Amino acid sequence: MTLPGWRNWAFSLKTFAAAMLALFLAFWIDLPNPYWALGTVYITSQVLAGATRSKALYRVLGTLLGAVVTVALVPNLVNAPELLTLAIALWVATCLYFSLLDRTPRSYLMMLGGYTAALIGFPAVGDPGTMFDTAVARAEEITLGILCASLVNTVVLPQSVAPVITARLDLWLRDARGWVIDVLGRGRTARDTQATRLKLASDAVAFDALATPLRYDMTGAERSAEAMATLRQHMLMFLPIASAVSDRIETLERAGALPQRLRILLDDMAAWLASGSTEQAEADRLKAAAHALEPGLGERPSWDALVLASLLARLRDFIDLRQDARILQRHIADGTPVTEDLTFRYTAAARTIRHRDHGMALLSAVGVFLTILVTCAIWIATGWPHGSAAPMMAAVGCSFFAAQDDPAPFIVSFANSAILGALGAGAYSFAVLPLATTFEMLVLALAPALLTCGVFMAQPKTAPLAMGAAVNGSAMIALQGSYTGDFAAFANASVAVIVGMWVAAIVTRLVRSVGAGWSARRLRAINRRSLARAAERQGAQNGLELAALMLDRVGLIAPRLAALPSDDAEWTADLLAEVRVGINIVELRRDRRQLSKPAREAVETLLAALSRHFGAEAEKPALKLLDTIDGALDAVSLDARQAPGRAALMGLVGIRRGLFPEAPPYRPALPSTTHPELAA
Asked: Looking at residue 466, what is its pLDDT?
């Protein structure tokens, strides 16, 4: 943890000012529980102004949705507590399930719609006659807090996300450039490692968290939001293309078949990247040089000729991607929309493709459902005064941290923050607040604790604990228009809050928690099932769309690999190779229709074999599959003079290299014609 800087203090002061504004307005409007407005400010406020605004609308709509559902459920089921518990638990679980399928701020609508029903519904069970008034008041209090937080973050020293994005982009592109320069220089340096590639994937996916606030930046930078979305997809597509370039160069080097003219081209490209040049003329010159090296693929082309053709195709793709990335980066830095036609257009169509984990979403929904049932059973069975706080906060804790592999430690940390908040709330409720007879005195009394929480909320490592202490502490103090010091009620509510969170942690650990390694393997298995469906002629109709989905999963896998022991992560070496195979499978599936009948039948046989392989649990492909690939190469090579045949051959080369990188070179069934352009 670093020492707080002026930005941390500025954020803390802004958040405190927004909280006091919300509290003052709640008192002025005479809302029954003004502390909900104060606590909502601390839940909503983010360091980046765009991040606060991006969630504000969805939080308001979610609150209104939860209030409407509560009004519909509680009065009708209040005389059947078991049914009411089931109904609220089912509603919270359903909302959590759908919120976890969406990794954008839209997810807050369903998440808040779920746990707002618990926040409003459970405390109102004892007095259902006032249910409508309670729901309206709670919606007003929460909405007031959201609006005050958004207003202050917008008006007072708003911190734009644009400089953060620019700095991280520069760092990512520098690392990617260093890796590719090493590849083009044929140097097997330590930087050209699987760990480097996976880190780049993880960092590219992480830009999602910054791209959304950019859309709500309101500094002019939001005009470049579309450029950021497209660039994020370009960044991911760099990885399989650069990985394929590395593989083809290594293959030709090992065979002693890397032409001298190609060596010169690779050196020129490395120098071009190192120079940082963005001149389109130089990019066009390099692409023209690559075209000039294109081997003529007659019938029965040699393996070296096929690999060379594949390498040159990938080099041209890389040049297009790099030029587009520079254009997009400039638009992001300038805060301007994209007006040019991008050369590598495929990624623009795939930029909204994201992995949706229905399995884990369902497991999280089951976890929160059981947690609410258990805490309600304790509350009802014991007749616990203020015991409604247990299922209420259990629903909040389960919802907040459901996206984690193992939410239990985070829920425990949230419970610990509630203990810290309870201690502070007790000191305030019975020692400080009785002396605060005016609103000004109340502000001065609250300032030390809330300003301290705000400073630590601005630092990622301490933010959850500080936010939990501020929110739970303000709720336990229960600020209202007049002082009502009731130690028994305070103690009951505080203990119920903590018990609810601990029950949530225990139930979550039993039914929901998984390890990072387990999640990584599961995501890899989902990728393999996607490959099996692609080979069965299902799923994405474009190879780059499939790659976008698979790369999104690779980016989610990458940060989890740190939890794996080094001797248990060998399978990660195949991750990008499988993405390359996926691109080639879909493109091969498309091109097969224009092949001759023998070639089409050979490709159909291969696709069926690939579907069986990726649908099975075996990690390594059987040698029989290699024979099937070579048989398809033999059949398709007879069509090499036509464009569909050439495209299909490139797909087969990619599949063979992706699945069998250590296999000996493919040997055509008949002697191949010598290609003079391969002589080095």
From this structure: 87
- The H or E element that residue 42 is part of is helix 35-44
Q: Which of 445, 469, 357 is nearest to 402 (CA)?
A: 357
Distance CA 374, CA 3 (A): 42
pLDDT at 569: 52
Q: Which residues of 636-665 are buried (b: 16+ CB within 10 A; e: fewer)?
A: bbbbbeeebbbbbbbbbbbbbbbbbeeeee
Say how far apart CA 123 and CA 84 lie, in whole Å: 13
Q: Are 480 and 372 in contact (CB under 8 A)?
A: no
Q: Which carries the bigger pLDDT value, residue 81 or residue 142?
A: 142
Q: Burial, 86: exposed, middle or buried (Cβ in 10 Å; 0-12, 13-18, 19+)?
A: middle
The structure's pTM equals 0.83
d(CA 613, CA 622): 8
Residue 311, pLDDT above cutoff 90: yes
Local confidence band at 670 (pLDDT 50, 70, 90 cut-offs): low
| Cβ within 8 Å of residue 449, ≥6 positions away | 424, 428, 470, 473
Instruction: Provide the CA 287 distance to its chain's centre, in angstroms.
Output: 34
Q: Exposed (0-12), middle (13-18) or buried (19+): which is 76, by Cβ within 10 Å?
A: middle
**pLDDT bracket for residue 98 (50, 70, 90):** very high
**With bands split at pLDDT 50, 70 and 90, how would you rate the model's confidence at 672?**
very low
| DSSP structural state of residue 430 | I
Q: CA angle at residue 52 from 50 to 57, to 5 degrees?
A: 100
| Residue 507: partners with Cβ closer than 8 Å, 6 or more residues away | 367, 370, 371, 374
Radius of gyration of the chain (CA): 30
In SS3 terms, 345-405 reads as CHHHHHCCCCCCCHHHHHHHHHHHHHHHHHHHHHHHHHCCCCCCHHHHHHHHHHHHCCCCC
Q: Which amino acid makes up residue 130?
A: T
Which pair of structure tokens corresponds to residue 616? 């099975």
CB 138 within 8 A of CB 119: yes
* Among 582, 168, 106, CA closest to 356: 106
Number of Cβ within a 10 Å radius of residue 292: 11
pLDDT digits (tens, 9 = 90+) for 134-162: 888 888 888 899 999 988 988 888 888 88
Look up tokens 């002697």; give the residue.
Answer: 671
Give dist(CA 508, CA 407) in Å, integer.
7
Structure tokens at 479: 């600020």
pLDDT score at 675: 42
Q: Which of 57, 219, 220, 58 is closest to 154 using CA atoms?
A: 219
pLDDT tens sequence across 594-632: 888 999 999 999 999 999 988 887 667 888 999 999 999
Give the pLDDT score at 485: 63
Q: Taking a C-beta distance cutoff of 8 angstroms, is the pair 675, 296 a contact? A: yes
Summarize the confidence of residues 462-483 as an average pLDDT.
77
Mean pLDDT of the chain: 84
